[in-house]
UniProtKB/TrEMBL annotation:
A cellular-component GO term for this protein: cytoplasm
Cross-referenced Pfam families: SelR
GO annotation terms (biological process): protein repair; response to oxidative stress
Stored HAMAP family: MsrB
Name of the molecule in the record: Peptide methionine sulfoxide reductase MsrB
Keyword Chaperone found: no
Binding site for Zn(2+): C51, C54, C100, C103
GO molecular function: peptide-methionine (R)-S-oxide reductase activity; zinc ion binding
Species assigned in the record: Rhizobium grahamii
Signal peptide range in chain numbering: none
Cofactor binding note of this UniProt entry: Binds 1 zinc ion per subunit. The zinc ion is important for the structural integrity of the protein.
Entries under NCBIfam families matching the protein: peptide-methionine (R)-S-oxide reductase MsrB (TIGR00357)
Assigned EC number: 1.8.4.12
Residue intervals of the MsrB domain: 12-134
Length: 135
């Protein structure tokens, strides 16, 4: 655990007070929203996507693309340390989970089927994001 993550360590009660029930379920309990139901999956406004838990910058709108999967998708984070990768073997699959590099919030998963220049598809739960327009 990094010092930054330790700084954002909160009790479940504190997270529940700060977040909506859906945001809490997704970010703190590693949940997933249903495809085509969460915020931002079909939004292409110019701006910056931040972590809903700690407000850290995660993705820029110019890296967002329509993957057709029903979740906001990006080909790269704002910085290499903005997100961390973790092996996820739930549901009988092997996937790479993505968490916020600052507060360890569950964001979604990354897959190697994205567009150039990275070939990556960061498939992110919209409820784990806060959008700052115009950045």
């Amino acid at each position: 655990m990094t010092d930054t993550i330790a700084t954002f360590r909160k009790t479940d009660a504190e997270w529940k007070e700060q977040l909506t029930p859906e945001q809490y379920r997704i970010t703190r309990q590693h949940g997933t929203e249903r495809a085509f139901t969460g915020p931002y999956w079909d939004s292409f406004e110019t701006g910056l996507y931040r972590c809903v838990c700690c407000n850290s910058p995660l993705f820029r709108s110019d890296t967002k693309f329509d993957a057709g999967c029903g979740w906001p998708s990006y080909f790269e984070p704002v910085a290499p340390d903005a997100v961390t990768e973790h092996r996820d073997t739930t549901y009988g699959m092997v996937r790479t989970e993505i968490r916020c590099g600052t507060c360890d919030a569950h964001l979604g998963h990354v897959f190697p089927d994205g567009p150039p220049p990275t070939g990556q598809r960061y498939c992110i739960n919209g409820h784990s994001l806060a959008f700052e327009p115009g950045r």
